[in-house]
Design goal:
By secondary structure, the protein is mainly alpha-helical. The chain contains 15 helices and 4 strands. It folds into 2 domains: about 210 residues, Rhomboid-like (Rhomboid-like fold, Up-down Bundle), CATH 1.20.1540; about 70 residues, no CATH class.
């Protein structure tokens, strides 16, 4: 607990900023509700606060677009914010050693927006929601936190944590278990919230796969395939002769490099570079080394 308090007070990073915004918003909301309760205006307070929640009704959303952001920092109860912020704190503490603060902000905000979109589309497309009150709302940072969790597990799938301080588990299995819990819980409780969690998880997965270069690599391979198909035979022969006439030419072999595990000195140097300049500053070869180290 002392470690959490120290990190919260001293660090001026993205995780610290997000934690503070959530806590300040919750305290202000609690004070406002308390004052309105004493004034016997509880219904009025709920109507006002609803302007910060994402509505399931698309027509209402068109007049409240800011709710796609504001709802990510609102919570309706103490345990609601406690569990969300604890999970966010531990996941961000892990992933921020490898990514910049700006990247964490992107995952949090866009993960929350993606979760809201999943909620809105589900509410308006699936027959099961037809009989639900059209004034349903989405509130909480759960979709954003889920995006951060899945993004962390995608970047560092074999990173191990102690669950409840007892069970040693890899992040990829922890994230998968959380997704399965959401899927199994949707039919029985809080279906809108569960679907928004899946939206956040989807964004965290896609964003981090793209961040690691998987999509770029696939596009490059696809381009190479089509270029190879359209090349004329004459060009192929000329290229082949060029290679034959260059005795010093040596084609790099990435397959052989993947077989060897990088040493700790290489890893430490890369981690130092990440801590100073962020993951984006790494070269392709350094990202390759880091990826092999996590396998």
């Amino acid at each position: 607990m002392n470690f959490i308090i120290k990190q919260f007070l001293n660090k001026k990073t993205a995780e610290n900023q997000i934690l503070k915004l959530n806590i300040v918003a919750f305290v202000c909301y609690a004070i406002f509700r308390f004052i309105m309760y004493l004034a016997n205006e509880k219904q009025v307070s709920e109507q006002i606060v609803n302007y910060l929640y994402v509505p399931g009704n698309i027509t209402i959303l068109l007049f409240r677009p800011w709710t796609l952001i504001s709802y990510q920092f609102m919570h309706v109860g103490f345990f609601h914010i406690l569990f969300n912020m604890l999970l966010f704190f531990y996941m961000s503490a892990i992933v921020c050693s490898f990514i910049s603060s700006r990247t964490l902000w992107k995952i949090y905000i866009w993960g929350g927006i993606c979760g809201a979109i999943f909620f809105i589309l589900s509410f308006n497309l699936f027959p099961v929601f037809k009989n639900i009150d059209e004034m349903s709302f989405l509130v909480g940072a759960s979709a954003s936190v889920m995006a951060v969790t899945v993004a962390t597990a995608t970047l560092l799938p074999n990173y191990e944590v102690f669950l409840f301080g007892v069970f040693r588990i890899k992040l990829k299995w922890l994230a998968l278990a959380m997704i399965l819990l959401d899927i199994t819980g949707i039919p029985s409780s809080n279906p809108g919230g569960g679907l928004s969690h899946l939206g956040g998880a989807f964004f965290g997965l896609v964003y981090m796969l793209n961040y690691k270069g998987y999509f770029n690599s696939s596009l490059r391979n696809l381009n190479k395939y089509f270029l190879k198909k359209i090349k004329s035979p004459e060009k192929k022969n000329i290229r082949k002769k060029e290679f034959v006439n260059e005795p010093n030419y040596r084609k790099p072999s990435f397959a052989s490099s993947k077989k060897t595990k990088p040493n700790q000195t290489e890893i430490d140097a890369i981690l130092d570079k990440i801590s100073q300049s962020g993951y984006d500053s790494l070269s392709d070869s350094e990202k390759e080394i880091l990826f092999r180290a996590s396998e």
